Amino acid sequence: MTKIKICGITNLEDALFAASLGVDALGFVFAKSKRRITAVDASQIIDELPQSVLKIGVFVNEEEQRVREILQVCRLNMIQFHGDESPEYILKFREEVIKSFRIENENSLKDIPKYKAIAYLLDTYSKESYGGTGETFNWDLAVKAKKFGPIILAGGLTPDNVVEAIKKVQPYGVDVSSGVESYPGKKDPQKLEEFVKRVRGISNTDMT
Q1: Is 123 in the active site?
Q2: Residue of 7, 14, 74, 175 marked active site
């Protein structure tokens, strides 16, 4: 079954609703973003969430000590490094790490095997930002990236295209943020529910 991560959580209402739908993970962005959240606010939300939901901190080129401070305050299960962090940098952390890569073309895949991570998240390349573009990329490249390890597909996913994406890529997981929002930082309950429903509705026979 394809894992579902809802990223850019900024409030308790969205977090609880997503958890009630049975998503696998929630992402909290601790980097410059329209969906940025403080460690204190994230901690208060996490306190109310069930243990079954993974809590993932998203960082972009952050100082090592600051990451450790937030990990401790928020009791995060996993780290997602979404910037230009080096392979040596992420090895400093004992926690499980997801490393993100912004995909522009096939050349964007060349550094993936240099990193030791539990999964590789593929997002759409943008000169303006490190994520949250709402734009898709060439999914054929995501298929090629699967040879390096578990792939989490991100970048422009919505309830309308997620089934097509999963059937084509057959990723370990999917990650959505802007595609289920009313506006940046606020999830749309109907879009969120429909996204989860469509992902969960895909059976193994649909993908063969």
Answers
A1: yes
A2: 7
